[in-house]
Amino acid sequence: MVRHEIKLQLQAFVAAFQFLTHVKIPIAVPFNGPVLSRSILYFPLAGAFIGACLAVASWLLAPYIPAWPAAVLILALWTALSGGLHLDGWMDTADGVLSHRSRERMLEIMKDSRVGAMGVLAAVLLLLFKASLLAELYKGNQISLYWPLLVCVPVWSRAWMGAAIAFWPNARKNEGMGVLFNEVKGLQACASFLVSAAVTYFLFELAGMEHNASLIWMLLLSMVTISCGGLLAAWLHRKLGGLTGDTYGAMNEAVEAILLFAIVVWIHNQ
């Protein structure tokens, strides 16, 4: 029994990275309920891996490239590391929800592989917004904060996806990517948030922050994630009668942008 659970946890760890990143792990794991429900726990670690890659890239670019070009390159790497999965969800969700059609028609539009005008416009505005925020952080004087924050943002956005999966119903019932996670429970989502909090605290301690400062940043990131993610999930649920795989990706992108914005505003007003 213990060996079976350990095996499931290891498979869940690999599944989280295979599902959320574009990194090829040459291990075959079953994408079924028992594995994917446990993989929620490791969503923040997949985000931490992406964030660590971004931090290393930033460190390599810093001596040679100005803030704006570096921010664009970092954002391109950020998108590539997830294979554009979440950005695709953002565009599909924008096409559907901003069409202001009936619920059924919005879901049909989101299933269409073609990207419409609203999806393109939403993607352009999102990327511009995120690039401007990264540039602002990159050229600031808070270099000791830059790298832990860059790692933490994708940690919390992916933890929120687990919460959205657990606490809101699937709009498509028995079809679509979201149905793969039907066995996810609230306990697993809460555990994912605890992992995010632990990772955040560890990173800020590693960056040399005082104990109280580490706790404040941990609370700030968690509160922004929960409040903004919750409002967005409730709005999408009202529009669509539930959430879908596309909306999980859209919320990941939105939470990342909101967290970056909150961080820039916080630092700017210190």
Provide structural commentary.
- By secondary structure, this protein is mainly alpha-helical.
- It has one domain.
- Helices cover 76% and strands 0% of the residues.
- The protein has 11 helices and no strands.
- Helix 5 packs across helix 7 and helix 8 runs antiparallel to helix 11.
- The protein is globular.
- The model has no long low-confidence stretch (mean pLDDT 91).
Question: Summed up, what is this model?
Answer:
This protein has 270 residues and is mainly alpha-helical.
The averaged pLDDT comes out at 91
- Report the portion of residues in β strands: under 5%
Q: Give the SSE string.
A: HHHHHHHHHHH
Q: What would you report as the Rg, rounded to the nearest angstrom?
A: 18 Å
End-to-end CA span = 53 Å
Number of domains in the coordinates? 1
The biggest sheet, with number of strands, parallel, antiparallel or mixed sense and barrel status, is: none
